[in-house]
Amino acid sequence: MKKSVIVDNGNTQQIQLVDENKQFTKILSESMKDVWKLEQNGFNYHILSIFGSQSTGKSTLLNKLFNTKFQVMNESSRQQTTKGIWISQAENSNLLILDVEGTDGRERGEEQDFERKSALFTLAISEVLVINIWENMVGLYQGANMGLLKTVFEVNMQLFLQQQGKIKTLLLFVIRDFTGRTPLSNLSEVLTNELNKMWKDIAKPEEYNESTLSDYFDLVFTSLPHKIYLPEQFEQEVIQLKERFYNTEDPDYVFKSKYHRGIPADGFSSYAESIWDKVAYNHDLDIPTQQQLLAEYRCDEIAKAIVNEFQEDINKYKEMLENGEIMEDMGEKFNEVREKALGLYDSSAGRYRKEVYARKRIDFLEKMNTYLHVYYLLQLRNLEKRAYGTFKNNISEAVKDDSLFFVESLENHKSKCIENFKKLAEESKLKDTTWNYNDHLNQLIKEIDEYGKITKDQQLNKIKKNIEKNTLTLLSGIVPTKLNNIRDHLWDELSNDLNETIINSIEEYKTLIKGYDCSDEELENNIKAIRKSSWNMFINLVAEETTDNIILVRLREKFEEVFRYDKSGLPRIWKNNDDIDSFFKKARDEALALIALFTFIDIPEQKIRDITGIKELEKEDLIIIDDERSKKLLNKFIREIELQYIDAKRSVVNSTSKVPAWFIALTMVLGYNEFITVITNPIYLIVAVVSGVSFYALYVTNLLKPVLRVIRVVIQDIWLQINNYIKEAKVNNSKKQNSDDPSTSDSLSYLEDDIPLTKLHKRKNNGKQEMYDSNATLVNFN
């Protein structure tokens, strides 16, 4: 007798219940009593087994769920790990877990005897049978172990269900590497339909012919994501699944009383061994007959040879499809290749047992369809990519002309693109298959819709930017012109021009987007954006036209227009009887009225809201020149016009002064010797002659005044380079020199008051324009 294998891993111990040679252990009773302490639990224990293909992670899943220590597969070698049937106690619980050798392993090859016996054994003794299956195996007959389950169900019906009565077993399908691309409900429906069909087809005792699968089995379906690619999500969902086995309050708790076999714990070892004996010696699970074996062997060999030739025929298309090319007439060509292979198979394998031949033919056809389906998926990928690229190119061409029928054009191109894709996808399908292209079609529609939305937004944004650019061009011609041609109703005119410009821009925008099927919300938001950007343009243009230098230039021009030039626009030549003070006061008042006009945007706030749509408007946004800046401008401007005033006064004094005749005679007498010295000295004489000739030449050619003007400008430029302190000193000195002159003292008295220009307002009183401060007090600049 072979010695039973015992593995002790920390707090858990597992034993090999049935070894790979189908020998049942002799130490199960001892382990129940001394190791797991379950023998006295009566009916308070539960049995769970796992069933599935080799290397699908069954042992790993059990270890995660129940903290067992079953040996797991080495990823690098991918060799068989679990041999036979192993049993272990779940950590700190009354659960006994059976880990069963996987099916479809290369180590056993085509020998399925142990697979059938182990599956039937676990089905008979377990309350819950976990069926571990990959998502991509759902719908496959062999991949999902449906053939094996069918045999097991038949024998289970004959051996055990009649004895056990209507005790149910829970089949818990755990769908591994679940991607979510196909909903779990759909996968569950496929498996349920296959199991029901299988149950209907199995051989049943006569009294059970009308029975259904649900009479003996409950089906539950759950899923787990990929353990390698989604480790965190896998761990989290394993923890959630674990609740079903431990938490009795969980609505999905699996160990219900209707699943219990009614065997007390102290009798479980004997019960399990008796079940295994029935299974091990049941001939319905034995190796097929020699004739069947020969038929299966030859059919497999024939299929293998034809598949190799079949693969050579289709491999020539692989590189083309992988490079993104479209295979023309794929469905027709692949149907021919498949029919050729089926013909070869039928002629060679049709001579063997008909039931084996027919079954193997289905497997052979499915295998060929599986190979060809890979090519079909590549074709769909390429069709989707080409259709999307064609759509993008067509839309790009359609919007080059800024079409007014964008949405209509978009829908037309989308419809053509989808119809062409469906036509080619349908033509590429194989006959008698359930292949579909819905996933690729849905992805194509999604990509088309996303690109259409992006293109629409880009075009709308482009139109809006062009409108804003045109608006800026219009305002750039209006604002500077108005500000350079100042009138009493300046801001009213500017606000009206702004409103008209915005209205025209909005109407133009509405016209250009008619073909884009914009929602009311989109239209309203874009119009708000145009209004707001137009107001910002207006503000910026006003700011550009009201810099310190420009304001000072306008003030000087206004002052000089009144003070230095007469009504005919000719320069004034001051005479002794001219009232310089009156001219100065008038010029000063008009200049000050001008600067007061530029202190803030004098448009009513409500009118601004109506024009721009801006609800929250800060008063600070309307200020152009604040108090501090107005003081600096005023001081600078006053210093400049003061010098012009002093120059005007001095020119009158210089023009009215006359040299006495006696002074001329005295100068001639006293300067006789110097005159003789000049004419007798060659150097002095040459300098005098050159200076005289130059002066005369400039006079004759009318260049004297321009030269003097240039000299004066040069002197003024040099003068301006002198620091402010020297300027102020000279101004103060000039004040002191003229303090005795009553005509000047009155005119300069306005400098005593420091009145912020932003607080000044113009009013007309009896036809005369006057300036008032913020307290409505008349400001007297005299």
TrEMBL record:
Lumenal side: 680-682
Keywords for the protein's UniProt record, in alphabetical order: Endoplasmic reticulum, GTP-binding, Hydrolase, Membrane, Nucleotide-binding, Transmembrane, Transmembrane helix
InterPro entries: G_GB1_RHD3_dom, P-loop_NTPase, RHD3/Sey1, Sey1/RHD3-like_3HB
Binding annotation for GTP: 52-59
Example GO biological process: endoplasmic reticulum membrane fusion
Cytoplasmic side, ranges: 1-658, 704-782
Keyword Hydrolase attributed: yes
Membrane-spanning intervals of the chain: 683-704
Domain of life assignment: Eukaryota
Coiled coil region boundaries: none
Membrane topology: Multi-pass membrane protein
GO MF term (any one): GTP binding
HAMAP family from the UniProt entry: Sey1 (MF_03109)
Protein name per its UniProtKB record: Protein SEY1
Origin species: Neocallimastix californiae
